[in-house]
Design a protein that fits this description.
By secondary structure, this protein is of the alpha/beta class. The protein is 45% helix and 16% strand. Strand 4, helix 5 and strand 5 form a beta-alpha-beta unit. Helix 1 packs across helix 8.
């Protein structure tokens, strides 16, 4: 039996669709307040039998911070994909996010150990990969280091990953994936998908920051392939390539049929916007542009994807093809 956490998110919903196509028993855990409509929409993007496939999922309400509830949910489960994580760059969410992401992962690891035969694929993040020397792409051997420039999300994913490594040292059968920024259809107003909506809405400004990107379908394919492999005690960066924010936005604009050259903001201009947004956030209680995001908008990060290619012969879908497919679904929504 297979169990998925985080099935109500972009990655989890695409993973669930793939799993129910291939397996009879799939459990997905969720919060009682979770809205499943976006998951249904993702299914509909990819299948004419979306409703029938969705009904194959056994949805279970679960508090991932309750070790007892997690243990009960995982009875008879022999494979688990742990995708659940809180994601926020709001300063007020930092402590809660770090606590939830680390504790929920610790509970999943503990339940796997209690079961004594459950295999785990844990979704970490490229933000838990350490920085490489100048001019070199970061690889899986790079050790994450504490820094005032790290986002709280980065801290939470590092601590979560450490729970899995601790378990593996104690005999846990597990493998870790570290995706870069995931692009895929659905959830248009949140996370990485929101960039499509913003470019479609006329966004003309960008920053020169650079990082890795990967299609959601490739992440799902890598996760399911690793689950069925004999590989354990390893982590794998998932990235189709490194692109600047401007390059990605221009790629999206071209796919939308609205080609444009993005105008680059200077660091001082973005810092000013962040300060103004901070003043607004004082009154509204929420900021759309934080200082951490402003810093990352100019950072240059590069990631190697060689390890997974060598391990299982994995080939990534070219990002331009990924973007065209995402935009096609956006225009048809």
């Amino acid at each position: 039996m297979i169990l998925v956490t985080g099935g109500t998110g972009l990655l989890g919903s695409h993973l669930l669709l793939e799993l129910v196509r291939e397996h009879e028993e799939v459990i997905a855990v969720k919060r009682p307040s979770s809205d499943l409509e976006e998951v249904k929409k993702v299914f509909a993007y990819h299948s004419s039998e979306a409703a029938d496939l969705f009904r194959l999922i056994d949805w279970v309400d679960l508090d991932l911070e309750s070790d007892e509830e997690v243990e009960r949910a995982m009875i008879d489960v022999d494979r688990i994909f742990h995708c659940a994580a809180q994601v926020s760059f709001q300063p007020g969410d930092a402590r809660r996010m770090i606590k939830f992401n680390a504790n929920s992962t610790a509970n999943v690891v503990r339940a796997c150990q209690v079961n004594g035969g459950t295999r785990l694929v844990h979704v970490s993040s490229s933000s838990a990969i350490g920085k490489a020397p100048d001019g070199l792409p970061a690889n899986e051997e790079m050790i994450w280091g504490s820094s005032k420039n790290n986002s709280a999300y980065s801290v939470s994913k590092f601590r979560s990953e450490m729970e899995v490594w601790r378990g593996m040292e104690e005999g846990l059968d597990a493998v870790i994936v570290n995706p870069t920024i995931i692009l895929g259809p659905g959830f248009w107003d949140q996370g990485s998908s929101a960039i499509v909506s913003r470019v479609a809405g006329g966004l003309k400004y960008s920053t020169p920051g650079r990082t890795g990107y990967v299609g959601v379908g490739d992440v799902v394919r890598a996760m399911t392939s690793l689950m069925e492999s004999d590989i354990k005690d390893e982590r794998f960066i998932l990235s189709a390539g490194d692109y600047s924010y401007a390059e990605i936005m221009e790629m999206i604009a071209a796919a939308l049929g609205k080609p444009r050259v993005m105008k680059l903001l200077s660091p001082s201009a973005l810092r000013s916007l962040a300060r103004l947004d901070g003043i607004k956030g004082f009154f509204t209680g929420k900021r759309s542009l934080t200082s951490v995001q402003a810093k990352s908008a100019f950072s240059q990060t590069s990631y190697s994807n060689e390890k997974i290619g060598e391990a299982i012969g994995f080939e990534f879908t070219p990002l331009e093809q990924v973007v065209k497919e995402v935009v096609r679904h956006y225009q048809a929504k």
